[in-house]
Design a protein that fits this description.
By secondary structure, the protein is an alpha+beta fold. Helices cover 26% and strands 39% of the residues. It has a domain of 131 residues.
């Protein structure tokens, strides 16, 4: 495993530990669910995917992996299309953002990995040797309400959360001091 992949796994563990410190019940996912369903853990009974974007703090952009190219040369849809997670948490530096809904592709700048990065992927032994990526400015994601600042890993004065509520059309974080929405047929009214 290369250093970047290991750093991503280490970051996931830090986020899970931080969620536990906030009072959430966090269980690791199975290896199968992690690989094939993009589920990193179960938080308060909800499947959760944790994404760490190591360049976003500097670039101001969040990267969404849309498709991946396998070593066979075939392209397949990535987690953006296939994930079975109900909650998405994105780490940018020490900030954690709850993704209320995945942004539509038409709002993204779409690109692929450079030839040099593809060569690095191959030399690192990655199963995916290229990717189609959608990029969006973090400031736009926040201003549109797609991303909500959930907290900071290094801030021990966090508000303790009681649950993450998932419903069709997005995910919602509910701190203790916000009344729960009224639900009708499993959807907020």
């Amino acid at each position: 495993m290369d250093n970047l992949a290991q750093a991503g796994l280490d970051s996931e563990k830090e986020v899970m530990d931080w969620l536990r410190d906030l009072g959430h019940i966090v269980e690791p996912s199975t290896l199968h669910d992690n690989i094939y369903k993009d589920i990193d853990c179960i938080v308060d009974g909800l499947t959760c995917s944790i994404k760490t974007d190591f360049k976003a703090e500097e670039s101001g952009r969040i990267v969404f992996e849309l498709m991946v190219k396998l070593r066979t040369g075939d392209w397949k849809n990535s987690w953006y299309h296939n994930s079975e997670a109900r909650v998405y948490l994105f780490r940018v530096g020490n900030a954690i953002y709850l993704c209320r809904r995945l942004p539509p592709k038409y709002k993204m700048f779409v690109t692929t990995l450079s030839d040099a990065e593809q060569a690095r992927q191959i030399s690192r032994g990655h199963f995916h040797i290229s990717a189609t990526l959608g990029l969006m400015r973090l400031s736009v994601l926040v201003s549109e309400g797609t991303f909500v600042h959930y907290g900071d890993i290094d801030d021990k004065r966090q508000q303790v959360a009681t649950n993450l509520l998932s419903y069709e059309g997005g995910q919602v974080f509910l701190p203790r001091d916000v009344p729960k929405p009224t639900l009708k047929a499993g959807r907020p009214v």
